[in-house]
Amino acid sequence: MAGPRAGKKSMANGSGGQNTSSKQSLTEAFDKDLYDGNNGVEKYAGYNMSIAANEDEEMQDAGELNGRRLVGQYTASKDMLNEFAHGDTAEDDILQSREQQAQIASRETGYQRRRFDRRLSPDRADPFTKDGANGGVAYKDVMKERELEREEVRIKRLLEDREKKGNEVLDHQPTLKDGATVTDGNKTPPMEKKRKRRRWGDEEPTIKKEEEEEKEEEKKVVPVAKKKSRWASSPVPEVKADEPAAAAEPVRSRWDTTALPSSGATPAPATNGARPAAPMTFAFGTDISARNAPLSDEQLDMMLPSVGYKILEPPPGYEPVRRPVGMPALPTGYQGYLVPEADNSLAMMGKQVSTEIPGVGDLQFFKDEDIKYFGKLTDGANENEMTVEELKERKIMRLLLKVKNGTPPMRKTALRQLTDNARQFGPGPLFNQLLPLLMERTLEDQERHLLVKVIDRVLYKLDDLVRPYVHKILVVIEPLLIDQDYYARVEGREIISNLSKAAGLAHMISTMRPDLDHQDEYVRNTTARAFAVVASALGIPALLPFLRAVCRSKKSPNARHTGVKIVQQIPILMGCAILPHLKGLVECIGENLNDEQPKVRMVTALALAALAEAASPYGIESFDDILNPLWTGARRQRGKALASFLKAVGYVIPLMDEEYSNYYTSQIMEIVIREFQSPDEDMKKVVLKVVSQCAGTAGVTPVYLKDSVLPEFFKHFWVRRIALDKRNYRQVVDTTVDLAQKAGVAEIVGRIVNNMKDENEAYRKMTVETIDKVISTLGAHDVDQRLEEQLIDGILVAFQDQTIEDPIVIDGFATIVNALGERTKTYLPQIVATVLARLNNKSATVRQQAADLISRITFVMQKCDEDPQLIKLAQALYEYLGEEYPEVLGSILGALRAIVTVVGLTAMQPPIKDLLPRLTPILRNRHEKVQENTIDLVGRIADRGADYVNPREWMRICFELLDMLKAHKKGIRRAANNTFGYIAKAIGPQDVLATLLGNLRVQERQSRVCTAVAIGIVAETCAPFTVLPAVMNEYRVPELNVQNGILKALSFMFEYIGDMAKDYVYAITPLLEDALIDRDQVHRQTAASVVKHVALGCVGLDCEDAMIHLLNLLWPNLFETSPHVIDRIVEAIEGIRNAVGTPLVMNYVWAGLFHPARKVRHPYWRIYNDAYVQSADAMVPVYPQFEEENLRRHELEIFI
Amino acid sequence: MADKLRAQQQLEALQARYIGIGSADTTKHEWTSNIARDSLSSYIGHPPMLQYMSIGLGQPREKTRVQLLERMIQPVGPPPKVSWDIRRA
């Protein structure tokens, strides 16, 4: 990383550019300076350096002739092409670089990226301070400013509209005349009919995802700037000169989003909205201004004859408007081309960016963008000459850098320092540095997390000092609330919740109120979410009066919309915790159901849906007042609004009791069924949801469903097209399953069973999945003979015709077969034949699936008395044990195991004595699936039929098993250990033990630990006395690893044998004595854990003398400081305390509780505390006697 | 450093649940107060013990119980003056 990088020059100073990263680009030439000359002249100047990303849309098709194609061309719609480009179904762009993917901004949707449009607002006044306003902006000013912004947007929109309609500059139409009535001082932009339709009518409607709905508004706000093509981007000079304000902004290409160097004391990142004059690039050949430029004197000399003519002096006062030839019109304020940051001294640093910053230490990384914020630290200024403020600033900067880029231990200490000194630093200097960092475009998840954590900690310390900065913090934190990442959302909520607790409700309201009718929809949306968090933090009742006022605002429909949205977000956030306030919340928004604005009506319906969903199954009485408007409203709405109303209806119905739900369902079902045929995706989604909700209520009868719902439902939703639609597929399957709950298995399955033989594979899979779900929940009792045949026939076709092997079909197959049970008998020969044929297939996945299927259906086959068939399968599988694909081999072993389980070891063919020798070499396979299945099979044989195999074979397996103790998967290691136990039981512990004890000498720790466990298990299964002599003998080996292993094995053994330990206490004590006075601390540690298990094993079994002896040996170890050692020692003492009683051990404790040395007091109090927590009552009789009169416990001296 | 902090946090969490536990900084006054309170609540919590004491004191059990309960307020007298408490500094 360190050191200058050639070729990085041009990139290094473009800090803040979207595509810059701190790593060397692979596509960039290292020797660029060689070939470029690097003399300030761009080699490719004048060429088109970027290819616009959306150019294809504008490009004319080559085959077009006179605007008419000769060949008909069909292509997918743009919606379809972009389906997986963003949103939930987005797929990663594999062409993006790693570090770019890590950046938060790179995976944000356009809507989320609008956070960059917001700027950190100036400090707000805190009216709660002593002097009232402390220099910040007051509430009144903010409201005025918002008003101004709205007015500005309104004017801009009017101008755009006019421009779109044609040049009407000369017409001078009064702007407020066309239709809109602005009489009551309403400052909101007049809604035009046309616009309205566009927004809520035919555009892609969304119900659930607010974000998408918002996107449309975004389109509307900057329609001109977005749609302009690159070709039109160089503005025509005349227009520019006349009305520069109205000129459309050029489309930004990726090249000109470079952030500009900030000049202020606190660096503020360039934001989208406040884009200062960014250097413009002009594509080659697109610049036509040269042709329109005035002719130069030389050109005129050449064109006109020089004799006989005279050049006249211009009249006084005439100033020609001249521009250099060949230069396009420049935006106002343009000061000539500057290489960004070329003259900035910090940029020089960019080249030698290292992770070493003076006074900070070695960082994990240091990105180019960080220079912008932390460059000051590297300027080498003399700190002795600085003021306290400057020093403070640098201190904070250093700490923040450590937190953001440092190693974990650095971060920890820096964070602690920031937290501890937060009040000394003051909120101003802290937030002025912290918040701009969070606005950085190239921020990554980890950095954001850390910075947010800093805010959280600092907030806690600053408490009410934070007030003036509340809005700034909200601007930065609110975007977290709509992040895709769950944890980011949780973090955001926590911060806002803490913020509202620190600042108080009144201040939060006065800060956020102006944003409620902000002209930007993004701001309103995020503010609504933030308000919901405030409600959950400070309680709904506190916020309810304010919400009521906002939702009834006469002045602004936007405020009403946002108010209702807050009410919608509250249940989403708090769930059933809204129940006590449900009535208040519903009343608050009830009237908005009949609002004059369609979008307010819609969001109200959605809010009601959210409330009902959270309240379910309680609270129907709170909804009483809105039932009527909701149902009548649903009849009147169309399109998107109808979808939202239906959604609310769907969520309210399950709350009702039987008769009501029956009545209300019948009222609405007509509309729902009508909307089955809607082509609109979201309407489909809502309708499906409503149907499953209605079907779930008691009031809806099966007959009604069968007669009026099912025919339409299957007609519109069980079509092939749905199976290919990723989004609706799941919903249709779920709804069908829900309908089956009411209508019965036979009814539903009978309708779709034939689809399993459909030619479309996706459709077949969808059918199999549905049948699987229906039958697994409801069983196959009402499936008759005919349907049974169809089912088996269909599933066999679906199974055989798979082109992409999918677990769905196998699952479906297994479910059907298992549900039919003994009724499958007639079909088994056919199934077995199919499976056998497929076991021999050349495709590995087909073989694997066949084997998997066997393991799923053996149980049923056994129930059908088809043992001969099972044997046939087992023999076939035995033949395939030579399989080379590990995945397939694993499945084959699994199938064999399943067969062995049901057939039994005696009846098994091939006989076990042939099968096991084949398994021994397979044990050596390193593949996890193979290992797991073999060990399981071997363990089963060892457990139930060890005598079918001769002991020599078992010993061979023992050796192989030792390797398995190294496996990564815990299940495999555990199975191997258990198998040791079974084998030891079968062939006696001696040989197995010898093998295991030998294995204690190996280097690998995991292997030794597992061996110790295995010894423990062997000791447990074969009784300890058969094992203990050999184990204790092995302890004499003067090798640390072996001795430790023995101790560990003893520890496991005593853990497993429990109170059998009593018989071995005196036998083991000398060994423990020796171990507890060993110089090696790990030795003592392990010995302590043996003591613990022994002691716990013989609680109340009369072994106190041995225990006290061990306690005496243990006690001096109390001063160990290594955490593992001291923990084991303390646990051992606790164990002994339980065995010998608290009072005895307390005698040891009193001595050190008030020892002069803290080092002594500390562990003694630890022991005291443990005793106190576990058995405080037992300590009462043994508390020491005190001399002082007031400390004596006279009651104890009472004697009768 | 980190371990110490963690141990400190654990101790605080434990102390929130069991008020009687102590640390290397516990003073004699705190400890003896806890001892006295634990003893008193133990007498009350074991009815036979309470009965025994009441017989010994020659008064009803309930009266003894209330007496014991009342003694739990500053059972070993008020806390010592701060100047005495050097260990804390």
UniProtKB/TrEMBL annotation, chain A:
PROSITE patterns: HEAT_REPEAT. Residues 18-27 have a biased composition (Polar residues). It comes from Trematosphaeria pertusa. The lineage of its organism: Eukaryota, Fungi, Dikarya, Ascomycota, Pezizomycotina. Residues 1-34, 99-137, 161-275 are annotated as: Disordered. Keywords: mRNA processing, mRNA splicing, Nucleus, Repeat, Spliceosome. Residues 118-129, 161-175, 200-210 have a biased composition (Basic and acidic residues). Coiled coil: none annotated. HEAT repeats lie at residues 585-623. It comes from the Eukaryota. Belongs to the SF3B1 family. Residues 985-1063 form the Phosphatase PP2A regulatory subunit A/Splicing factor 3B subunit 1-like HEAT repeat domain. GO terms for biological process: spliceosomal complex assembly. Residues 225-344 form the Splicing factor 3B subunit domain. It is found in: Nucleus speckle. GO terms for cellular component: chromatin; nuclear speck; spliceosomal complex; U2 snRNP. InterPro entries: ARM-like, ARM-type_fold, HEAT_type_2, PP2A/SF3B1-like_HEAT, SF3b_su1, SF3b_su1-like. This is Splicing factor 3B subunit 1. GO terms for molecular function: mRNA binding.
From TrEMBL, chain B:
GO terms for cellular component: precatalytic spliceosome; U2 snRNP. It holds the Pfam family SF3b10. InterPro entries: SF3b5/RDS3-10 (IPR009846), Splicing_factor_3B_subunit_5 (IPR017089). GO terms for biological process: mRNA splicing, via spliceosome. Belongs to the SF3B5 family. This is Splicing factor subunit. It comes from Trematosphaeria pertusa.
